[in-house]
Specification:
Blueprint lengths: L8 H22 L5 H23 L4 E4 L13 E9 L1 H4 L8 E8 L2 E9 L4 E4 L15 E5 L5 H10 L2 E5 L2 H9 L5 E4 L5 H13 L24 E4 L1 H19 L1
Parallel strand pairs: 1-2, 6-7, 6-8
Antiparallel strand pairs: 2-3, 3-4, 4-5, 8-9
Helix pairs in contact: 1-2, 4-7, 5-6
Bound molecules: adenosine-3'-5'-diphosphate and magnesium ion (MG).
Magnesium ion binds next to strand 2 and helix 6.
């Protein structure tokens, strides 16, 4: 049976992320018979089904764009669309006991992200757009950039060289964006491929925390487009934003020279 409607859209986002996260933690513990691809596929599927069941019960009139669902283009004309990645960092989820994987739940309404939560189930955390916390003070030293541990884009290596930055590898777009918010790193820059579900909830939460995520070229991130491919992203804490932007612009100039 589905629990009662949690209330506001923010509460729904957080409850959906938490419930799917609990399920994934259980699956990982209970299904010792599953490994690798089988564990990834099972996790993706059960988390997607749970999220869909909860959103259907609590927000029956809203559309859903999920990494694991079949896309219905009718969402493009809908007023409200939940953009979800039931299991981000699927690879890391399958590598027990890694904890760098996430559940993403965001709500897009008429052009803007209006609610969002990123669950970090293996850390028993849900970060929410509506419950921002102060960023810890930034330590002295080089800029720290979160980067994919399994397929670090060459572009980010070039950026790090230009900035004299340190690369901090970890899995999951949600984990990397949340690492900016908890002070583990100063920025997360990605290029070369991603989809709306990889960044919508992390961007919603980062926006709630007062950050201003953009595309790599500085333009706004736009969601609920017909093609959900959204290949690049910059999430940076305010103290390093100008420096990171200047380096990105210089790299773009070099590329066009
Ligand atoms: N070049 C690329 N093209 C498409 N998706 C990419 C990508 N690089 C990263 N991603 C997606 O972004 C998420 C974070 O990746 P990473 O951990 O490597 O930083 C992953 O989501 P999933 O785990 O949901 O598939 C991954 O599939
Ligand atoms: Mg993903």
């Amino acid at each position: 049976m589905t629990a009662p409607d949690p209330g506001s859209d923010h509460e729904v986002a957080a409850a959906v992320a938490a419930e799917a996260g609990h399920l994934l933690v259980e699956v990982r513990a209970d299904r010792a018979d599953l490994e690798g691809r089988d564990l990834k596929d099972h996790g993706d599927r059960v988390a997607h089904e749970r999220i869909l069941a909860l959103l259907t019960a609590w927000r029956p009139d809203d559309a859903v764009l999920s990494e694991e669902g079949s896309d219905d283009v009718a969402r493009v004309t809908a007023d409200r669309v939940w953009i979800v990645d039931p299991l981000d960092g699927t690879r890391e989820f399958s590598e027990r006991p890694r904890d760098d994987w996430a559940v993403h739940v965001a709500l897009w309404e008429r052009g803007a992200l209006v609610a969002g939560a990123v669950g970090l189930p293996a850390r028993d955390l849900v970060l929410r757009m509506d419950r921002p916390e102060a960023l810890p003070a930034r330590p002295d030293g080089p800029v720290r950039l979160a980067v994919s541990r399994s397929r670090p884009p060459e572009f980010v290596a070039a950026l790090a060289e230009r900035l004299g930055a340190e690369l901090v590898p970890m899995g999951s777009a949600g984990v990397k964006a949340m690492a900016v918010l908890d002070g583990t790193v100063d920025a997360y820059v990605h290029a070369g491929g991603q989809y709306e579900w990889d960044s919508a909830a992390p961007v919603a939460v980062a926006t709630g925390y007062g950050l201003a995520p953009t595309r790599v070229d500085g333009s706004p991130l736009q969601y609920n487009r017909e093609d959900p491919y959204l290949p690049d992203l910059v999430v940076a804490r305010p103290e390093v934003l100008d420096e990171v932007r200047a380096a990105l612009d210089a790299l773009a100039d070099d590329a066009h020279a």
